[in-house]
Amino acid sequence: MRDILLFVVLLTALMIGWWLGRRGSTKRGRRIEQQGTVTLSRDYFVGLNFLLTEQPDRAIETFVQALEVNSETIDTHITLGNLFRSRGEADRAVKIHQNLLARPALSSRQSDQVQLELARDFMRLGVLDRAEGLLDSLIKRCHDEQILNAARRLLIELFEQEKEWQAALDVASTQRLRDDPPLQRAAANWLCELALEEFERGHIASGQKKLKQALSTCPSSVRSHWIQAERFHALGRYRDEIKALSKIPQQDREFSPIILERLGRSYDMLDDEPGLLAHLDRALEQTPSISALLMRAQRGLPREGLEATAKKLSERLERFPNLRGVVYLAALDVERIDPQHQAERLLMQTLHHHLERLVQRDPRFVCRHCGFQIERLYWHCPQCHDWETIKPIDEFPPRSEAPHAAH
Ligand SMILES: [Zn+2]
């Protein structure tokens, strides 16, 4: 599809070039017109011949050579370079954009636009220092708000790739942060990264300061609360850890399954099993999820017994059918069968084994922005580079039904 688009752009550009050349030459005289037409036609037919003999690379080279650069075709050249980049041929895009930059016909806006595209080409090639240099000079001199913003975003992306978190923060100044919630979330995550670096170096006070900044930059940042909880755990402040973890489902319900394991760990450290069960009951009322339901069943089992646990779980699954719930119910059933009834027990064990394999095949996390699926939690999506968009795959009862889940 992209190849077809590329050829369409090339052919259109050639036709425009031919028409402009013809129009210009008519004014200058018939003899020149004939020469221009002959030259363009020859290149055009040579390119077309390569295309027809299925040599697209040579066809593209020929068409590009035939394209005349003038003020009317500059946008076409820029698009052409971008198409090469999107096809994974960033080196060709560099050639086209560099060739354009050298032309005096460019207006200052066009020159800025080409420089921006050239920076994108270098980023695609992984030549980050060249891209950074181009973007730095562009940001210093450009007055076009649209190009300026695009250059800043690209520079931020570059600093994120280099893990230069402070530099990214410097580009996203306070004023811009105030007006841009996704940028606020990103900035909170850069501050989290800086805080973690400080903690690793043993600079606790300055790490805490960065974390506090992260929380004030974006109070709804889940990761800031997550790291705060981890810090409390390291200090043995388990009640504070529970409080910090409890803020996460309030910020984003979809993240609620990630806190369960740590929550269990904190209550275990406090030796407070009834506290954990009460917490899970509250969670099932306020932010229910299948993970919370299963944890409640597993943790309540020693106190409430097999029969009661299986009955309660079965009732809930009646309302919210879920494979993970069925797997756990099958595990409970294995335990409920009298060991004397070996054949029955073996059959149930086999069923449980196969069901468990089905569940294990499922990915555990997905990026809600681009759909990227992964086995563990990442705060920065490796595919779309958004922050805090990778969330656990869980099943949540509809909100209107939620109160039933607790009973
Ligand atoms: Zn993504």
TrEMBL record:
<dbReference type="InterPro" id="IPR041166">
    <property type="entry name" value="Rubredoxin_2"/>
</dbReference>
<keyword id="KW-0802">TPR repeat</keyword>
<keyword id="KW-1133">Transmembrane helix</keyword>
<dbReference type="InterPro" id="IPR011990">
    <property type="entry name" value="TPR-like_helical_dom_sf"/>
</dbReference>
<dbReference type="Pfam" id="PF18073">
    <property type="entry name" value="Zn_ribbon_LapB"/>
</dbReference>
<keyword id="KW-0479">Metal-binding</keyword>
<dbReference type="GO" id="GO:0009898">
    <property type="term" value="C:cytoplasmic side of plasma membrane"/>
</dbReference>
<dbReference type="InterPro" id="IPR030865">
    <property type="entry name" value="LapB"/>
</dbReference>
<keyword id="KW-0472">Membrane</keyword>
<keyword id="KW-0997">Cell inner membrane</keyword>
<feature type="binding site">
    <location>
        <position position="370"/>
    </location>
    <ligand>
        <name>Fe cation</name>
    </ligand>
</feature>
<keyword id="KW-0677">Repeat</keyword>
<feature type="domain" description="LapB rubredoxin metal binding">
    <location>
        <begin position="365"/>
        <end position="392"/>
    </location>
</feature>
<dbReference type="GO" id="GO:0008653">
    <property type="term" value="P:lipopolysaccharide metabolic process"/>
</dbReference>
<dbReference type="GO" id="GO:0005506">
    <property type="term" value="F:iron ion binding"/>
</dbReference>
<keyword id="KW-0812">Transmembrane</keyword>
<comment type="function">
    <text>Modulates cellular lipopolysaccharide (LPS) levels by regulating LpxC, which is involved in lipid A biosynthesis. May act by modulating the proteolytic activity of FtsH towards LpxC. May also coordinate assembly of proteins involved in LPS synthesis at the plasma membrane.</text>
</comment>
<feature type="binding site">
    <location>
        <position position="381"/>
    </location>
    <ligand>
        <name>Fe cation</name>
    </ligand>
</feature>
<protein>
    <recommendedName>
        <fullName>Lipopolysaccharide assembly protein B</fullName>
    </recommendedName>
</protein>
<dbReference type="GO" id="GO:0046890">
    <property type="term" value="P:regulation of lipid biosynthetic process"/>
</dbReference>
<keyword id="KW-1003">Cell membrane</keyword>
<feature type="topological domain" description="Cytoplasmic">
    <location>
        <begin position="22"/>
        <end position="407"/>
    </location>
</feature>
<comment type="similarity">
    <text>Belongs to the LapB family.</text>
</comment>
<keyword id="KW-0408">Iron</keyword>
<feature type="binding site">
    <location>
        <position position="384"/>
    </location>
    <ligand>
        <name>Fe cation</name>
    </ligand>
</feature>
<feature type="binding site">
    <location>
        <position position="367"/>
    </location>
    <ligand>
        <name>Fe cation</name>
    </ligand>
</feature>
